[in-house]
Amino acid sequence: MSIDADQILDRRRLRRKLTTWRILAFVAAALALVGGGLLAAGPDGIAGRSRPHIARLTISGFISENRAELDLIDKIAKSDAVQGVIVSINSGGGATAGGEALYEAIRKLSAEKPTVAAIRTVGASAAYMTAIAADHIVAYRTSITGSIGVLFQSPEVSGAMDKLGIKLTEVKSSPLKAAPSPFAPPSPESLAVIDGMIRDTYNWFVDIVAERRKLDRPKALALSDGRVYSGRQALDVGLIDEIGGEEAAIAWLTTKRGVDARLRVLDWEPEGSSSPFSFASAAFTWLARGAGFAPDWMQAAGLAGLIPTRLQLDGLLSVWHAPSGLNAEGAPR
Prior knowledge:
By secondary structure, the protein is of the alpha/beta class. It has twelve helices and ten strands.
């Protein structure tokens, strides 16, 4: 049976029409899904968060000054749907400036929303600084917290340079410029400058512990000798308010601050993050591998991978280091 030219053309036209309608149907379905998602998202653009709920803000890994993290806290404070906030903490601390930034941001947040900190495995040093910004602190009996203090470390490789026959020529404007230097033993004057900076920051840390935990300053000072505490010990000395986990945090929000117990707890994450504050954790991992955040002189000398992470960081630290057999989350390596 033969098919004439007109029949062939008709079939081709029909196929084109069917293809066109299929494409239009697909586009319409896609637009409907996107539109529905935007409607569900509400004004903050995040799906599921337009209805009243309790926000969970997770602080984990190495604490640094993270702009996306601070912007997220500001969004939580401004969201009409957020009825209360749980700051879920699992961190051994980090940069002191990062802890200060979180402290200030969460103080502003708690002025707008009832806020409770829940310390999980570890909430020490800059992470404890973050916790005391909340209105209430809970921790497990075996959580690790405290480690109130400030640290500055600088490597000194002059002995190795002497053995290798490496000499450094240095011209600087004054004796304390770039001091202490990794290329020479520190002078008493340079150590005195660093000690003064440490003491100034440490005194501020002790002051906010005394203020937020309602302790007299001598007691706060005695508790701030750098030691860590279990959750039970921290409760006994007044560094936390209650033993428990997230259930205890929710119970405090509902019984003490009038938050509806039926509300869901929803995670808030920075835009583009696949896991809570993964940027800080990724930065910590990258540092540990000596992959690019070390000071320039370390990179140039090829030493970044040979020197412990804490010695590669510029600036003051408020961090408690887990034993070598544990990772940053407190789990065996």
